[in-house]
Amino acid sequence: MGRAQLALYIIEQLRAKKEIPKVPVFLNSPMAISATELFFDLQEKHRLNRSQCKSIDRMVTLVKTKAESIELVGRKDPCIIISASGMASGGRVLHHLKALLPNPHNSVLFLGYQAAGSRGYNLTHDHDKVKIHGEYVPVSAEVHNLEALSSHGDYQQIINWLKPLAEPKKTFVTHGETAAADAMRGHIKEQLAWQDVVVPEYLDSFEL
Asked: Which of 24, 78, 89, 114 might form a disulfide with 120, Cβ 3.0–4.6 angstroms?
């Protein structure tokens, strides 16, 4: 939540500066559409002013119905489509990928971290085909990952979030790949001086 709205803001700014052409922009994700409508309605709760919200609202077409989504998948003229899920694990984005990946004139841009083994990871690591809806789709489109837009906090942001807390009896680091989780364990012990910090392994059990 929040990345779709950030992406829309960035696209609107690029269009205003004439750094990208003013092609149509579509948002095709029910959850992201609901969040965007709240975003427009509750302008006092975030940093964008009313004028900026209106500019984004005028720019984007919200794809709300199944029929509109199907029509968008078949669209052939240049446009920008924002869809979910972010790792291409499911959702409307799969229909767009099936239509767009075989064409070298298209570009697919992921916004942030792609977990190992996910479809997004495979696409951003030069796989020449990807399995969607039970069939393999050739990858000829350009595929990029803009990791700077990851929704995950970095280790220092997490440390700063933990600082006000009293030291717990035991701290578990359970998110992320093994090497990253162990590095986080080290940061917690070093910067917060918490003594009992562990990275549980599969089937480990602990008495609380």
From this structure: 114
